[in-house]
């Protein structure tokens, strides 16, 4: 009996060609669907995307979707291989032959589906991706999965951070202007003002940490478990300390003693006065820079009008550009450097006024504060990374903050604890270092002689509002630095400065200031587009 030659028909090579074509199409579609990013935002979101595990249902569904002609083409070489092995196996059951062909089909189709599912954010179609992301928001952990697991959600997260940090900075500056400059209750004492606001900010941190612990269950259910502050202290080796508390019905005095003695609660979980020498050693440079930039900025702002204050601090973003290239070894593109320089020059044009009073104290304090403002996000990011590495023992891995949720939506325990630790130690060390400076300055004697309104509720209301804005900036600035870069975090001050100059001038500026303001806004848009282009290029190189 003449057996037909399976290699003579062109359909034999059709499955392999179709597999190669579909693989190329899926990789091409993945490269085409890479979306825009700001700095490393998209790569950060896609690097944490969990790969879906294979399931038996997926394999069965894949085998059922193969067309009949492809199954026939696979079955022909199987029969040929059976006849060649007749010397070793005399009888071959037809069921075994069919199962081997089906298994081969399942394996090949499973590899095909793995290619398309390895990058679920960019490989699926637009309609399917949008529909699945919209539906997943209303599921358990959907908010965190949407914000940190999709490109659209990550962009929304970045936009919220930028507007939140810029708005809090503007609100704090506006409240400080009311306290230092305007009204009946003028308080021209920048060191005392700084200490009072730092103490209130520390209290807001304590309250916010307690609030996240109280809302731990709903936050974890929506996928934001990484926001919850740790409730227990961790000793060296990243193991929880032994707690000797009693039942749930403990008295208030017992809870307070837990704060001081057992190392629970507080901001970072180690009690109200948590202190570890190694952690304090890593955070100490950040606290020194934060103290210097805050005190010098308030001194400059207390003795100068707004345009002169902006001129004295005009070198913040260019210095950040230089320091990130030197300390962090970052390579900036021509578009980024051009956008930074042009935006700074246009802000200078917006701030120039004729006939304004220019005290030398404000100019010197503002010029020195520019260096510390530029250095602060760089040291903040380095200290945060050092704390994360210290919390992980050698040979261990980062542990998910909630085992029931994927790591993409909840983060890790080490990152959460490092975030709250750097807030606690920076605030505590800054307050401890500022108290001796205040005693030496002699401001307390002047306040005792001249201030008669310290018992007025309106004064403390303004102070509380300024401290609340400072708390918003202090607690979210590290998140912005992590999500973008130190340069982008400081670059937010340029459009915010243009807006606050226009608002505080009652929108009555000379013509050259309006021209500078418009060009500065256009340069900021150029910077964003340059960062978007750089993010796309890095994604293409890395294969994301």
TrEMBL record:
Involved in the import of GDP-mannose from the cytoplasm into the Golgi lumen. Residues 1-116 are annotated as: Disordered. The chain crosses the membrane at residues 146-167, 187-211, 283-304, 310-328, 364-381, 422-440, 460-480, 511-529. Residues 1-30 have a biased composition (Low complexity). The keyword Transport applies. It comes from Aureobasidium subglaciale (strain EXF-2481). This is GDP-mannose transporter. Keywords: Cytoplasmic vesicle, Endoplasmic reticulum, Golgi apparatus, Membrane, Sugar transport, Transmembrane, Transmembrane helix, Transport.
């Amino acid at each position: 009996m003449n057996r037909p030659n399976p290699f003579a028909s062109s359909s034999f090579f059709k499955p392999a060609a179709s597999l190669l074509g579909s693989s190329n199409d899926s990789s091409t579609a993945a490269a085409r669907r890479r979306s825009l990013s700001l700095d490393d935002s998209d790569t950060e979101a896609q690097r944490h995307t969990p790969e879906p595990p294979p399931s038996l249902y997926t394999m069965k569904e894949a085998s059922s979707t193969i067309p009949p002609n492809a199954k026939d083409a696979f079955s022909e070489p199987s029969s040929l291989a059976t006849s060649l092995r007749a010397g070793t196996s005399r009888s071959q059951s037809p069921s075994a032959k069919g199962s081997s062909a089906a298994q081969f089909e399942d394996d090949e189709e499973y590899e095909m589906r793995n290619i398309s599912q390895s990058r679920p954010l960019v490989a699926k179609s637009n309609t399917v991706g949008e529909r699945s992301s919209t539906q997943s928001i209303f599921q358990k952990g959907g908010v965190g999965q949407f914000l940190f697991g999709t490109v659209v959600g990550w962009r929304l997260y970045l936009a919220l951070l930028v507007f939140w940090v810029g708005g809090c900075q503007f609100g704090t500056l506006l409240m400080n202007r009311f306290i230092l400059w305007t009204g009946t209750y003028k308080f021209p004492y920048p060191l005392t003002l700084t200490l009072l606001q730092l103490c209130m900010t520390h209290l807001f941190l304590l309250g916010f940490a307690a609030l996240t612990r109280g809302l731990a269950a709903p936050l974890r259910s929506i996928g934001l478990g990484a926001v919850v502050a740790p409730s227990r202290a961790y000793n060296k080796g990243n193991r929880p300390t032994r707690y000797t508390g009693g039942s749930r019905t403990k008295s208030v005095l017992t809870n307070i003693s837990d704060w001081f003695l057992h190392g629970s609660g507080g901001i970072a979980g180690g009690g109200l006065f948590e202190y570890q020498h190694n952690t304090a050693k890593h955070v100490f440079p950040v606290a020194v820079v934060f103290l210097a930039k805050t005190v010098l900025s308030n001194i400059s702002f207390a003795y100068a009008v707004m345009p002169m204050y902006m001129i004295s601090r005009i070198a913040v973003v260019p210095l950040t550009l230089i320091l990130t290239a030197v300390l962090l070894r970052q390579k900036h593109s021509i578009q980024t450097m051009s956008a930074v320089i042009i935006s700074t020059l246009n802000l200078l044009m917006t701030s120039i006024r004729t006939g304004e009073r220019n005290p030398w104290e404000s100019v010197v304090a503002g010029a020195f504060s520019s260096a510390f403002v530029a250095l602060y996000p760089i040291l903040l990011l380095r200290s945060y990374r050092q704390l994360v590495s210290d919390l992980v023992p050698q040979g261990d891995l980062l542990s998910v903050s909630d085992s029931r949720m994927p790591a993409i939506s909840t983060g890790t325990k080490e990152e959460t604890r490092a975030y709250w630790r750097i807030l606690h130690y920076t605030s505590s060390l800054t307050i401890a270092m500022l108290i001796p400076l205040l005693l030496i300055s002699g401001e307390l004697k002047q306040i005792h002689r001249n201030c008669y309104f310290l018992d007025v509720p309106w004064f403390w209301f303004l102070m509380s509002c300024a401290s609340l804005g400072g708390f918003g900036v202090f607690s979210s600035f590290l998140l912005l630095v992590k999500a973008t870069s130190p340069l982008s975090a400081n670059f937010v001050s340029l459009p915010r400065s243009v807006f606050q100059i226009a608002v505080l001038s009652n929108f009555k500026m000379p013509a050259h200031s309006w021209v500078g303001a418009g060009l500065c806004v256009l340069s900021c848009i150029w910077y964003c587009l340059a960062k978007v282009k750089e993010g796309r290029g890095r994604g293409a190189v890395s294969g994301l």
